[in-house]
Amino acid sequence: MQRFSYKTQRMFILFGFLTIPVLLSLTFSYYPALSLIYYSFTDWTGLGWNMNWVGLANYKEIFTKPDVFMSLKNNAYYFVGGLIQTVLSLWFAVILTSRLKGRNIFRSALFLPYVLHSVATVIMFKNVYHLDYGSLNALLRGIGLESWQQKWLGNPVLVNFSLAFISMWKYMGLNMVIFIGALQSIPGDVYEAASIDGATAWQKFRFITMPSIKSVLSLMLILTLTGALEAFDIPYVMLLGANGTSTFVIKTVDTAFKYQNFGLASAMAVVLLAIVLIFIVIQRKVLFREEK
């Protein structure tokens, strides 16, 4: 049998290892994305393959219906909650990378909510927020703050704050673990040199920690933005989007499956993708400009 040269063998190996991932990516990512864009220009109902080309009619309907984009204001609650969650995650990460006794126990306790299934988390918080037997109102009653008791899921003013808090509680552990990994990659000699020079804890954090985790912080802000715009499971499982809790994704899903208008829903998904990309570009250009 003829023996191939090293260069030929290398090409065969690279081709073999890259073929399957590329095929999977084309099949489950790029083809569905291109199909989504195509469907957004049709009146497809999602049943069968009978569809008519309607051009930009779906996009025109999106931008002429104020109630479609009004749902984005509910996504803003999750975005603000995500920013608070990022700050708290970084704070806990800084504390739990210090020489704290039992830090692994605290890490596990804070990461545990992320492991729980979203449906289980929502069911648990239904018992927390319940007006009569909820643990939150019971706690307020027990410490003499009966006037603070609320209909946490029935009050339109408070309901989105309550749901955003669930998202903060669930995903803060994941962000904390990512920050811990970033902080542990910073050499300890840098902090020791700063201590010798008389730097305070705040100066170390500002001039050493923050510049060192700049790329990770950028990633976390992108995840916060995309997570806020894609908020779906918590408000949908809790209230099915009722009582003013409907987000942009819930409206998209209802348009597709409840009203059988997959063409319009596809256009809404494309618009959401465009919004995410625009915000990411703005963030990269304004907040995290690359130093030349």
Automatic annotation (TrEMBL):
Gene3D superfamilies: MetI-like. Its main location: membrane. It is found in: Cell membrane. InterPro entries: ABC_transporter_permease, MetI-like, MetI-like_sf. Pfam families: BPD_transp_1. The chain crosses the membrane at residues 12-31, 76-97, 109-129, 157-183, 216-242, 262-282. The keyword Transmembrane helix applies. Keywords: Cell membrane, Membrane, Transmembrane, Transmembrane helix, Transport. The keyword Oxidoreductase does not apply. GO terms for biological process: transmembrane transport. It is a multi-pass membrane protein. Signal peptide: none annotated. Residues 71-283 form the ABC transmembrane type-1 domain. Belongs to the binding-protein-dependent transport system permease family. This is ABC transporter permease. It comes from Paenibacillus nasutitermitis.
